């Protein structure tokens, strides 16, 4: 009995560590640099205090999302209610939210980034909310936005 319990604990702890392996950037400038270096678009998650965990639990905490995101996007989490960020960062986050047309939170924006002559420009690919069809459907919708041509 103890062996079975130990095996279960080890299995679950390895899954927990694996699911926590995502790298969410919280500095848009850092994310832009990484996006440019890796030639990957940004997936910006706009969130705030009091926002339910459903989105994160049903989409971001899955192995499918982790595997997909590592290959396809640079993850950015911008918390509109984070008390630890400076006023400049809060203002920057609000400007980005407004520029991308984010009207509700939580919401995800997919965008390409271009750096030219010291200026950063964005090409918004689309906005995503939580869908009721699961992570595979959510990823498929993201892929259709990323592969528009």
TrEMBL record:
SUPFAM superfamilies: Thioredoxin-like. It comes from the Bacteria. InterPro entries: Thioredoxin-like_sf. This is Thioredoxin-related protein.
